[in-house]
Structure formats: C-alpha cells, structure tokens
Amino acid sequence: MDDERGSVRSARAGVTDAPPDRARLPRSRRQAGGPALPGSSSPWILMYHSVAVEEEDPYQLTVSPERFAEQIAWLHRRGRRGVSVRELMRARAQGQDDKLVGLTFDDGYADFARYAVPILQAYGFTATAYVVADLLGQDNGWDTEGPRKKLLTVQEVTELASAGWEIGSHGLGHQALPGLPAEVLGVQTRESRRLLEEVVGGPVTGFCYPYGAVDRPAAEAVREAGYDYACAIAHSPLTGRFALPRCYVGDRDGAWRLRAKKGRHRLRDAITSLKRGRRERRP
How confident is the model at residue 159 (pLDDT cuts 50, 70, 90)? Predict the structure, then answer.
C-alpha cells in the first residue's frame, strides 16, 4: 500500500531525505506539537489535494470526480459524516466525534469549488481547504513536474468562507517550514493568517504544513501565532494538536483500501502512544 504522498513530494522538493515519520526530530519531554488530544487516539482525517480529470499526475495528487463521489458515498454508507477539521476538533472536545471524519484539501486548487463542493453538499458534508495566502488566483508553480493547476481566487475563497467552508492557512509561497529561521517562521505563520483573515472577514484558526513537513520549531511557531490546531501527515513524536496526522487519499483508493487505511491509522496511533508513554516514563 502506498505511503502518504506528501512525503514523496517533500523529498522531490529537496525538503528532506526521509519521509516525515522518519525525519530526525529534536528530543524533548515536552510535546511541542501540543497537548495530547482528548480521547484515546488521534481523530481520523483524510488528506485530499485536487479533484479533477488529469491525464498526467506524477505526484498522485488528483482524484477523479467519479472516484471522489464513490469515496464520499462509502463514508456515508459506513455511517460517517465528513466535516471540517474545525468542526471535528470542536466535536472531539465535547466527546461527540465518534462518527465524524475530517476532510482536508491541501493547496487550495480551484477544482475544490467546481467538483468537490457539490459532491460534499449532496451528502451534507463539510471540509477544510488550506490555501496559500499569497498565491490566490495563481497556480501550483512549486510542482515542477506536474500539470499546472489553477488555485482558488480571492473572490472564490471569500465566497466559500461565507458559505460556511473552513479556510485554513497553508503558509506563504508553499514553502516547507523545517529549518527556517525563527523570524521567517513567524512571517510564514502570522502573515499568512493575517492575509487570509482579511479575505474571509473572520478568524482563521487552522494551519496545514506545506508538504506535511514539520519539526519542533515549526510547531511552536504555529502555536505561538494563535492557531487552534495544525495538520501534518505522518505520526511522529510531535503528534498532537499542532501536528495532527492524516491519511493520504488517492484515485486508486476504493472501499477496501480506505478500510485498510483506517486500520493502519489506528495501528500507527497506538504505536505512537506507546512510544510517547515510554519517553514520559524515562528518568
């Protein structure tokens, strides 16, 4: 089964030589990713990027509208309701998230509004779109080997937010955060939030790390910038409110693969919890 594709893109972009879950992270007894989440496990969050028809998809970021409709229908048949991460975290704090699954769309592609939103609305689902604040209306120039994809415009982001869809920050310039100086991390987190809050006319409380790449200083910068949570990809020592793990979803993922990925999420969560417990018990 495929590993999360965000780690593949990170390697190609020169961000790291290893997937996020294998990257070297500084040791500390304090969870820079945030306090442990309520409940015994991390919430189940699915990671999408683009919903469209593409003949070439080297990064495997695109799910066809037909396949996406099948995946959403499967969640509905299983008694699950897809929601934004904002809604998921609020429900979790109240112990009411048992049948919820977070739906996230990274990069802010324009096809989110064209293809994904109508399908989600048909089932009464919601979702979060993480957009690159300074690239609205442009394209995904960071994906040098893939097809050019249009990004949501300022007007489209405004309309989506007004209709109740959560808009979160994906930083500035789609730049990976690990290794950046503290002052640059501050700009990436604070300025992207400020720009988006002007666009949506309200608070922006969610952050998503470009390429899913996160280290301790990045997680601290997001927390200090005033966000309520942040999404990563892989489970890691930072797993928590400011490094939420997610499951990559691609065009090949039918019912049995989604079911297997749910099981893998639970397994990785259990392993992460065991490792965290051992670290906390060390003298």
Answer: very high
